[in-house]
Amino acid sequence: MSGSTLGLRGGTAPPSSRAAGAAVDPQIDRIVRTPEFQQLVAERTRFGLILTILMLVVYFGFIGLIAFDKSLMAVKVGGGTASLGLFMGVFVILFAFALTGIYVARANTRFDALSDALKRSVGQ
Question: Which residues cross the membrane (predicted)?
Fold first, then answer.
């Protein structure tokens, strides 16, 4: 992307954050202003934040239980040697995999459709 200023996530930085007088590729500027691009960025950002918040709640909930309720985590499950803490730890790991699968499914359907609509609208 010659002449563009990259933001933190690899996308173009908003016009207000560009250095004064920096050369901007007019095609990139045109793409950034399209409603399809803005919708794609908004939906992807919102979805990513929701999944991030869910993961943080589950992870820090687990860590909080470890820190503040060790007796609950030590409860033996099913009469064996496995504790509730072990199953909760496995749940945290499986939850992360599930969120990854959910994101991939959304990216392969909704986000790809929005990307295709964006490509059509800019004529590529």
Answer: 47-68, 80-105
Q: What gap in Å lies between CA 59 and CA 110, rounded to an integer?
A: 27
CB 73 within 8 A of CB 88: yes
CA 64 to chain centre: 23
Q: CA 45, 47, 53 angle in degrees (round to 5)?
A: 100
Q: Residue for token digits 């909930």?
A: 61
CA atoms 6, 12, 13, 18: torsion sign: positive
Contact 114, 43 (CB under 8 A): yes
Token duo for residue 45: 């950002």
- The answer to whether 17 touches 23, Cβ cutoff 8 Å, is no
pTM, whole model, 2 decimals? 0.74
E strand or H helix that includes residue 121: helix 112-122
